[in-house]
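Fill in residues.
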């Protein structure tokens, strides 16, 4: 049985039966157009024809977004000049930083669709200049290795924008936050909730708008992430993504501008003890987000 299977993967066997190696490379490439990148890479191990088809520029161009040349413009030319389409896909599937490293994009390895993350460093934060209210601290739990920590404020507001040639798709925008301040205790992760207060007294308002007039808003009480029971509720101090809403891109030209904000401006009480990591923009049906409101 093992020998027979081995024969099928190469050219026809001694008794004249055809094998997979007899399939023309062009036919294999046509089939690969309908497969995902991981599936293509796995099948490339079978024989020479499959390996050749798996390196075809036509196959890998079909996996790249329609405007991948604009994505390459974010990189130094020497990083991609002369690369085949397979290597360009691999390059863009890794995190590509831009805007002084405060934003990053990458291609989903399965679908080739664009995902983006925007650091809190790229946002405007009311009161950030006063270290009694806000400060930055490093952490390996962030893609950007730093997060904004709100110690205590009365007026809480963060906002930001991104202008980018998103390929046509439906996108979801989320904020990644958690209550408490991360630290290490005996080498293990822990959270300090000493300054965490006020979030149960009023909802936080999340908003997004686009340059073509789309708008979404949602409100959440942040204190309700402090649950941890046998039913699988989220443990207090864990990162969680709060879904702001969705927007639709029908064309990469003109470029889409997305504006977003997170605010709680009820000045009747103070609030604090909150980490803000980033905003993510991903295709809406790409994955199941661990998000409030989903």
């Amino acid at each position: 049985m093992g020998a027979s299977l081995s024969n099928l993967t190469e050219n026809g066997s001694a008794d004249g039966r055809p094998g997979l190696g007899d399939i023309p490379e062009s036919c294999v490439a046509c089939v690969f157009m309908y497969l995902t990148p991981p599936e293509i890479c796995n099948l490339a191990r079978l024989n020479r024809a499959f390996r050749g088809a798996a390196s075809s520029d036509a196959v890998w161009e079909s996996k790249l977004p329609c405007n991948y040349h604009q994505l390459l413009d974010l990189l130094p030319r020497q990083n991609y000049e002369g690369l085949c389409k397979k290597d360009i896909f691999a390059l863009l599937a890794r995190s590509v930083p831009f805007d002084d490293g405060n934003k990053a994009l990458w291609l989903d390895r399965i679908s080739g669709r664009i995902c983006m993350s925007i650091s809190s460093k790229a946002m405007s934060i009311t009161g950030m200049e006063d270290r009694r209210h806000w400060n930055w601290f490093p952490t390996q739990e962030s893609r950007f290795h730093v997060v904004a920590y709100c110690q205590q404020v009365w007026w809480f507001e963060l906002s930001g924008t991104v202008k980018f040639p998103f390929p046509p798709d439906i996108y979801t925008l989320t904020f990644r936050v958690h209550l408490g301040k991360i630290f290490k205790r005996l080498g293990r992760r822990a959270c300090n909730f000493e300054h965490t207060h006020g979030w149960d007294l009023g909802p936080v308002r999340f908003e997004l708008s686009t340059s073509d007039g789309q708008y979404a808003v949602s409100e959440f009480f942040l204190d309700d992430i402090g649950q941890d029971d046998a039913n699988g509720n989220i443990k207090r101090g864990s990162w969680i993504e709060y879904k702001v809403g969705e927007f639709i891109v029908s064309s990469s030209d003109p470029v889409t501008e997305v504006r977003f904000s997170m605010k709680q401006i009820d000045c009747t009480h103070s609030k604090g003890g909150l980490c803000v990591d980033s905003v993510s923009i991903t295709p809406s049906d790409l994955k199941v987000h661990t998000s409030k409101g989903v």
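The mean pLDDT is 85.
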